[in-house]
Design brief:
By secondary structure, this protein is of the alpha+beta class. It is built from one helix and twelve strands. Strands 1-2-3-4-5-6-7-8-9-10-11-12 form a twelve-stranded antiparallel beta sheet, with helices on one face. A hairpin with a 2-residue loop joins strand 8 (78-83) and strand 9 (86-93).
């Protein structure tokens, strides 16, 4: 029985306007024609796809006799993908994206090397926990500085109040002795 080669692979590709050359996919050419929400894409590897834009982020299509529905939406750091096979949500940051529903579809990029799958999911969790710890330390530091500043202001106000009260009492005592 042959053994499976699990060595990590680097992505090697060239993307031009209509040509894409990659290590795994080979050479392919693509041309898209679209007008008024309707479009057709001719790809040398995947055939012809006819598609119709439903609304922003969603389209339906027909490729090689198979129906397609694709919807992509984003709101803040979250990305939502809807297709025939289901729904997925991912969080995107500067290191890649972590898929919440399907963690094995995550990607992680560091030092020019992109990882996908389970290894990327583990690295993303470690990265997000590290960022959470750093953010919590920063939050507690800012809260501590604000509380100390407020405490300093209260102490300064109290000292000024005592000084003013003392000067007022002393001035009142001087006036009463001079009048008699």
């Amino acid at each position: 029985m042959p053994t499976k080669d699990n060595t990590p692979r680097k992505r090697v590709e060239y993307r031009g306007k209509i040509i894409r050359v990659s290590r795994t996919g080979g050479v392919s050419a693509r041309e898209t024609i679209s007008k008024d929400g309707y479009g057709a894409t001719l790809n040398t590897n995947h055939g012809v796809r006819f598609h119709k834009r439903l609304f922003k982020g969603a389209r339906v299509g027909l490729q090689n006799g198979n129906f397609q529905f694709i919807g992509r939406y984003n709101n803040g750091p979250f990305n939502f993908n809807i297709s025939k096979s289901g729904v997925s949500t991912s969080i995107q940051n500067n290191r890649g994206s972590y898929n919440l529903f399907k963690p094995n579809y995550s990607s992680f990029k560091m030092g020019g090397v992109q990882l996908r799958g389970k290894n990327a999911a583990i690295l993303h969790i470690v990265f997000m926990v590290f960022k959470l710890i750093v953010s919590l330390v920063q939050l507690f530091w800012h809260i501590l500085v604000d509380v100390l500043w407020l405490l300093l202001l209260v102490i300064r106000w109290f000292i000024d109040f005592i000084k003013g009260f003392y000067k007022g009492f002393k001035f009142d005592k001087i006036e009463t002795t001079t009048k008699t």
